[in-house]
Amino acid sequence: MNPSELLSVQSLNVSFGASTVVEELCFSVEQGKTLAIVGESGSGKSVTSLAIMRLVEHMNGSINSGKILYRHGEKEIDLAALDDKAMRKVRGKEIAMIFQEPMTSLNPVFAIGDQIVEILTLHEGLSRSAARKEAQRLLDLVRLPDAKELLDRYPHQLSGGMRQRVMIAMALACRPKLLIADEPTTALDVTIQAQILSIIADLQRELGMAVVFITHDMGVVAEVADDVVVMNKGKKVEQAPVADLFANPQKAYTRALLSAVPKLGSMAGQDLPRREPLTVIKDNQPQEVGVSRALDTARYEEAPLISIRNLVTRFDIRKGLFGGVTHRVHAVEQVTLDIFPGETLALVGESGSGKSTIGRTIQQLQDPTSGEVIFKGKPLAAMSKAEKMQLRQKVQYIFQDPFASLDPRKTVGFSVAEPITTHGLLDNRAAIDRRVAELLERVGLSSEHAERYPHEFSGGQRQRICIARALASNPELIIADEALSALDVSIQAQIIDLFMELQEERNLAYLFISHDMAVVERMSHRVAVLYLGQIVEKGSRRAVFETPTHSYTKRLLSAVPVADPGARRKRILLTGDIASPVRAVGNEPAIVSLNEHAPGHFVAEEAAKSINHQGEHHA
Amino acid sequence: MAKFIFYRILQAIFVVFAVTLTVSFAIRLTGDPAIMLSQGAGSITEADLERIREALGLNRPFLVQYWDFVSGVFVGDFGRSFMGGTSVGALIARALPATLMLALVSLFLSIVISIPLGITAAVSRGKWADQAIRILSLVGLSFPNFWLAIMLVLVFSITFRLLPPSGMEGPISFIMPAATMAIILTATNVRLVRTTMLETLRSQYVMVARAKGLSETKVLYKHALRNCAIPLVTYFGLQFGGLLGGIVVIERVFNWPGLGTLAFEAVAARDYPVLQAVITVLSLLIVSINLLVDIAYGLLDPRIRTE
Fold first, then answer.
1. Rounded to a whole number, what is the distance in Å from the CA of B292 to chain A's nearest CA?
2. For B97-268, which CATH class?
3. Closest alpha carbon within chain A to B5
4. Could you state, in order of their start, the residue ranges of all structural domains in chain A?
5. Does ipTM top 0.90?
6. Per-residue pLDDT reduced to its tens digit, A92-115
7. How many alpha carbons fall within 13 Å on the CB side of residue A574?
8. Do B209 and A99 touch (CB under 8 A)?
């Protein structure tokens, strides 16, 4: 082991039962540096981190061979050969770990303070009162306000971003030499992600700690890493310093992966979304397939397909015994929008911005509190049952989670045929089967797949099935609610292309609901930015992305990590949390008014100080 | 929380009323105590029967009798038994502790055994320890409780003469009845603990607890078990109610001087006051246990406590 190395993984093999999930993996981590391990689902990156912690054994996995050398003072210890008792002295003390899901990482039944105190009394031998004092200092360190009061709070009282900061405080409690962060920001909004990344970077510098950063997000890699290991199907593809990897990837897989990553700013100077060729690996060489063509499908000269006028959706929160309404979630407040035939309108915003509620209201999954939804000139409220049914046929919904949105007990063919039978579009069995086969082939699957069940398909394939199902009723509008968020980037690129191809072919309109600004930039004709249920900026994609005008839009765009290590930039950082749409009854939010900043580009008026955030500073 | 408890108490009072009303009404459909009382007394005329009914107050309208009973309960007077005129209150005071003690000992025994067994099964899922525990629990489930009780008596009292076959005299007499019930309870409890534990062990925070370097004992018995507490306490609470009902058979077999025996004899004799009182006390007990379970939720889970 090189003296500058803290950890050296040598020929590591990990398996679960008969299947090998990590194969002959070698890499090393320099002291005080950040190594990113990047890969798609099934690449073995998380298993690698659990193997270093020797936690794979608790998941019925086993380390079959190889060494995990760790530098402990003068000595080198092989973690793979350590017994459980010795390993427990390493876990939490020498090597600490933070996990992906901040909502479930903290034990819900213990106070935050107690959970931090526990690790301090275990490894540092502190008394309870000394440990409590130290816990408070740690919470200050991760920039949580009111640390003293937080000690006695429980996890459910904190937001996801705050919980992840508590996790970091807990992980850093014993000043570990190595921090393993397994997708620590994947479940968080971009502005909160930016906060967490900056906290980890600052503390890493302060404590001189090395970090192994596991992620699927090339943007985050470019932002944080010194060195990068690319993994695929359990094996290392390549390892390189971050700048080299992005500038000059050696392996076909890396090149394909990098080209699939949507990069914010890549559409600069173009008015319309564009289909771009996909990079696929053929004969071990990356090859480009597909067309490059601008998508001039939107027909703004026609009447809007769907109009929303002053839409308000609120949810009552009943607290207490007799169910008095004390608070309301102001999910959507006075939203007015038009969706034109053949256009992709993107709704962007962070959690709680109300973007999904708007989609659900159009699909009649949710009743509005007030306001109108107008389909082809006729308000929803004035529609007969049959007309409402027809609206359901013409508007289809694709959900985020392709695993949960198909009935596991029904064949794929049944699910795809269901809209056809429900709306009585075809009446004989043979015609329906033919149509299902056609649809499956249209989305890149084969007609034999109709006989199979959802569990036989991967996430990307299931999302294709959901698209086929949505197409089955000949819709004019498809609402895609975070439909790409659960997919790996290479699959995501394919589905984006499929969406665009279908738009060209059928003149579909999309309401594209997403938190991913780079994907939105690739796909949309127009964009509406939502903040706390209100539109703060809307206009053509080019106007919103190239001349963002509202401070929230600017902040949102600046928080997006860009997959280019040369472009690490200063960004506007939030110190506070995302504001909550929950308000006491009677405390109505102020309705912002939109001004036409440039033709078709509307921006909300802003008060002198920034809206509702606890403040901001420039990092 | 205070408001919540107040509401639950109101609910409990309503439940007790409903139960006693149903029981008082139903028991009067099962037969005439005057005939039971006069059995073996030679020739009885309708006038004699009428006199007995009048003496017992049975000739009054049902609602009057019910009101009489309920108003008595409020001042702690359960009336007198039709058989020999003993105070029902005194009968209950003697039988209730016997039943309660037996039920509590059985439940306690079962919990103490099933938690470690269930956790062990969950942790070693699919391995031999898990298989063995599951087979054992299935065997335990398959025994009818009266058969098990008789077998224990045969082996330990008749063959080896180690334990008293019946009655409640000192701690030693608890062993067989409590063991009988505990075996049956444990069989289901082990499975419940195993299932809830498996669920909890999949949680991220269990992995986090291990990543802190805590020992397996701490991870399982502190971090995981506390999170299993809600379903377990709910089930144990419900089980205690069922236990009080099921105890009748065991009390008969071991001649245990508890509520079960008392109720059994009262049914046979159409002794309305005793039966009414036993059912009222049992329903009060079950309702208050459920109330305690609800309060325990708040203590166990901060998400409920702080709402």
1. 18
2. mainly alpha
3. A321
4. 1-94+179-184+208-248, 306-618
5. no
6. 999 999 998 888 899 999 999 999
7. 26
8. no
